[in-house]
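Dear Dr. L.,

I hope this message finds you well. Following up on our conversation about the binding site, I have prepared a predicted three-dimensional model of the protein together with 2'-monophosphoadenosine-5'-diphosphate. For your records, I am including the exact sequence and ligand specification that went into the calculation, followed by the structure tokens. Please feel free to forward this to your student if that is useful.
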Amino acid sequence: MLKFAVIGHPVAHSLSPAIHAANFRALGIDATYEAFDFAPEALSSGVARLVLEGYAGFNVTVPHKQAMINLVMLDESAARYLAVNTVKVGSGGMMRGYNTDVAGFLDDLEANGFDVPGKQVLVMGAGGAGSAVARGCLEAGALDVTIANRTPRDGMLPLGSELCRKIAENVDLVVNATSVGLRPDDPAPIEAKFSAKQVVYDLAPVKWTTAIVKAARESGAKALTGHGMLVRQAARAFEIWTGKKADVAAMFAAVHEFKV
Ligand code: ATR
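The resulting structure of the complex is given below.
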């Protein structure tokens, strides 16, 4: 039997165990997928234990994606985005880290009929997720990518500015990579009037309709949520671990009740 896991802090809310279990069931694979809460100071000992106990791979979620860089050999994707969300444990316990988040995000855009090449993109939030997604869009051929942040460091566009609102109303794709929306009563990170030709992608896979998704839908824009990215990064992680294609439909069915 193969053993997999997700590690994070906290991790109890993670949808990954349900997504992977659904895929294993659909493919008839004898495997388990558990969630382990490792505090930051217990990260390296926790990871060492997973290797000793014979786990074949694991996912890494907040807040460990950056810290994992120091504990594993980096695949090109992890080196590029400086974040590890998938680890494969090879023979002799050698760990290789990958980033499937960005590819999962791009896969989901493609699956929803959005072609990144030539498009104008606004990414709100310059943390780990925002920077990686912005870079991913540029590398996928976006015409331009603007990053806006609450704290306008490195000459970034201030999130609350009038210019930011104008850009948000005119680009092809608006991505929310801030933490605003992670609580049910959060406002939208920006007050903007979207239009029907736009796509608004809220990265957080939360169980409620965020204010920005609501605003996008009311304006006729297409709104996508982080559930799609979550499923597609999981599919890629499974493919890295096993070399087999994941059953993406079964994975989506597992998050259906959480998808708004
Ligand atoms: P992640 O790994 O999910 O990207 P992170 O690196 O902690 O998480 O980044 C969180 C992002 O949300 C940052 O861009 C942060 O902006 P600051 O750099 O100004 O802190 C943004 N953020 C958090 N709370 C916010 C708020 N109330 N309004 C706007 N942006 C917020």
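In brief: The two ends are 34 Å apart (CA to CA).

With kind regards,
A. P.
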